[in-house]
Amino acid sequence: MNVRYDFSGQVALITGAASGMGLTTAKAFAAAGAAVALADLNEEAVQTTTDALKAAGHKALGVVCDVSDEAQVAAMVENTVATFGRLDAAFNNAGIQVPPSDAADETAENFDRVNAVNLRGVWACMKHELRQMRVQGSGAIVNCSSLGGLVGLPSRAAYHASKHGVIGLTRSAALEYAPRGIRINAICPGTIDTPMVADMLTKQADAMKEIMRDQPIGRLGRSDEIADAVLWLCSSGSTFVIGHALAVDGGFTAH
C-alpha cells in the first residue's frame, strides 16, 4: 500500500478475499487497523489467510460464502456484525469470468452464471450490508465493476453485461443512501496481475495480446494499486465522492 490510512476501530468486509485483489485489499485494511471479515468460496484459502492475519496480531474472521446464494450472503453479514459489532466498509469484489463467445453462440448457462455472481452477488451483498449500515447511519461500500463496465469488447457480451449492471446498481443505490450518511461507489479495474488474469493469459493469449496493446501504461496493474483505490473510497479522504465508477485501468478507457 502506497498511502497510509487509519481504519482503527472500524470493520471491513471483503468478498473474493482468498486471492487477487480481494486478498490484497483485506490485508491493506488490516494493516490500516481495521477488523476484517474475509469471505470466499474457497474455504481452505480463506481460512489460511485469516489465520495468518490473526497470527500477525490483526482482528480477522474467515467466512465461506457463495455470493450467488442470498441466504449465504445474509449469514456472512450477520456473522461479521455478531463478531465485530458493526460494519463500516465493504468491498464487494467476488467475481468470475466466462469463456469468450460469439454473442450468437453464448449459452444461457454461461450468461446466468456470470450474472448470478457478478451482478446478483453484488446486489445481495450490498442489500444486506446496507441493512446494517442504515441502522448505524454510516458506512462506505465499494462494488467491483471492471473496465468491462465502461466499454464493450468483442466476444465478452455476457461478462460486460454483468459489469455494466454493477455500475447502474451502484449509482441508483448511491443516490438513495447518500442522504442517510452512506457512500456507495464502484471501482473499475483494468487488467490486473491476478490468478484470474494469469489464467486468461494462458488460455486466451490472442485476446490478451489485444488488450495489452491498448494499455497506455504498458504493463498489467497490481493488486495493491486496486487496494489503494478501495481504501481511499472508504476513507475520510473521499467523503464527497458518491455514485462514481472509478477507472483504475492504466489509461485503457481514456482512449
UniProtKB/TrEMBL annotation:
Keyword Oxidoreductase: yes
Species in which this protein is naturally found: Beijerinckia indica subsp. indica (strain ATCC 9039 / DSM 1715 / NCIMB 8712)
Protein name: Short-chain dehydrogenase/reductase SDR
Domain of life: Bacteria
Entries under InterPro entries matching the protein: KR_dom (IPR057326), NAD(P)-bd_dom_sf (IPR036291), SDR_fam (IPR002347)
Gene3D superfamilies in UniProt: NAD(P)-binding Rossmann-like Domain (3.40.50.720)
Occurrences of domain Ketoreductase (ranges): 10-190
CDD domains the UniProt entry points to: SDR_c (cd05233)
Family designation: Belongs to the short-chain dehydrogenases/reductases (SDR) family.
UniProt keyword Cell cycle, yes or no: no
Keywords for the protein's UniProt record, in alphabetical order: NAD, Oxidoreductase
Molecular-function GO term, any one: oxidoreductase activity
